[in-house]
Design goal:
By secondary structure, the chain is of the alpha/beta class. The protein has 2 domains: about 130 residues, Rossmann fold (3-Layer(aba) Sandwich); about 160 residues, Heat Shock Protein 90. Helices cover about 45% and strands about 20% of the residues. It is built from 10 helices and 12 strands. The strands form 3 sheets. It has a 5-stranded parallel β-sheet, with helices on both faces. A 5-stranded mixed β-sheet has the order 7-9-10-12-11. Strands 6-8 form a two-stranded antiparallel ribbon. Helix 5 packs antiparallel against helix 6 and helix 8 packs antiparallel against helix 10. The relative contact order is 0.07.
Length: about 375
């Protein structure tokens, strides 16, 4: 078994690090492999460069140890092949060599090696070098994962702030362009400004709380809530936003229904679906929102539009990040390719589901399924 202090690859469940050992002398492979196996490492042996490349196509090592002098493909050529292969480029390579010529040692580093060991091999030195370079690799991997997470988080925040800020801008524009508004219209615009500002602040507070808890959705915010009331407010708001394209957003009548989850996260999912519906629906059309029974213990919200629908070739990539579909918004609106991926992530985190169905008669139908009670 691997000791508790053995390095573990970043972003993965705990497992034994895999070390590739390549030498044209089988005895050398056995000796080095036995030393590593005694310390709990998993060993991938190879007696040629070609065999090493073949075996690493099936199992990607965490570190590699190459003999420098080998027939056909020597260690330098094999190391260069690793650096040219995207899946293997980050694997640290340690050379084992009896060479003492400075040019040979410089060649090892120029080929992409991180270290070298001189023959005859000393067991303690070999194991310490292996451990050191595994720790460095896994630390580097963790930094890469964190950088990717930060990029994704920044994109998610920017995307989810766009909707309320666009609403604020729209309301301010209407106030500036029509100074002599009727009292009722004025009150509607002021209410929209307050609502959008409140939602922006609520999103920021929620984001800070979730970030502190390192959670996609605030688990302690899961509770039963009235789905109809949430939908009514959203539909009124997006019906107002749709007026610019003369699109009506309507909520089908439904009996009072309760769902279970994080209401703010549910609102984010539905905002993304309604925002997309307004982007892709043709001017003068209608967007329908319906509540229906789902699988046992679930409820579904269906958002339907009469836009171009999702092409068959786009459906497999529909919920991936930064995917822009072949269909284009009907009035030149911007599309980041993030909204549906964020909505899918939130739906999954609440033990729900988000799926696409082509709408009968043309258009799109997005089905958001939520539990109606806690999932045990």
């Amino acid at each position: 078994m691997v000791g508790t202090d053995t390095p573990v690859p970043a972003g993965r469940e705990r497992r034994v690090p895999l070390v590739l050992v390549v030498d044209d002398e089988p005895t050398n492979v056995q000796v080095v492999g036995a030393l590593l196996a005694e310390q709990g490492y998993d060993v991938l042996p190879a007696t040629s460069g070609a065999q090493a490349l073949e075996r690493t196509a099936a199992r990607r090592p965490d570190l590699a140890i190459f003999d420098l002098r080998m027939p056909e493909m020597d260690g330098l050529a094999l190391c260069r092949r690793f650096r040219e292969t995207p899946e293997l480029a980050a694997v640290p390579v340690i050379f084992v060599t009896g060479a003492t010529d400075d040019d040979d040692l410089v060649g090892c580093f120029e080929a992409g090696a991180v270290d070298f060991l001189s023959k005859p091999i000393r067991a303690a030195e070999l194991l310490q070098r292996v451990r050191t370079h595994l720790e460095l690799k896994f630390s580097r991997d963790r930094l890469v994962y964190k950088a990717r997470d930060c990029d994704a988080l920044t994109a998610m925040v920017a995307h989810d702030l766009k909707s309320p800020l666009a609403s604020i801008r729209f309301s301010v524009e209407m106030l500036s362009e029509e100074p002599a508004l009727a009292e009722e219209r004025l009150q509607d615009l002021l209410a929209a400004l307050v609502d959008s500002t409140d939602r922006t602040l609520a999103f920021i507070d929620d984001f800070l709380n979730r970030n502190a808890a390192a959670s996609t959705v605030a688990l302690d915010a899961f509770r039963p809530f009235a789905l109809n009331g949430l939908l009514k407010g959203l539909v009124q708001r997006y019906d107002y936003y749709g007026s610019e394209k003369k699109i009506r957003v309507e909520l089908d009548p439904a009996p009072p229904t309760e769902a279970f989850g994080d209401p703010l996260a549910v609102e984010h999912v539905l905002e993304n679906l309604l925002s997309n519906a307004l982007k892709f629906a043709p001017p003068g059309s209608r967007v329908r929102v319906a509540v229906e029974a789902g699988n046992p213990g679930t409820v579904r919200v269906r958002v339907m539009d009469r836009g171009p629908g999702i092409d068959e070739s786009d459906r497999k990539r529909l919920f991936q990040r930064y995917v822009r579909l072949s269909a284009k918004p009907t009035s030149g609106e911007s599309s980041t390719g993030l909204g549906l991926s964020i909505a899918k992530q939130l739906a999954d985190a609440m033990h729900g589901n988000l799926a696409y169905e082509p709408r009968e008669g043309g258009g799109s139908s997005f089905v958001f399924e939520l539990p109606t009670r806690p999932i045990s």
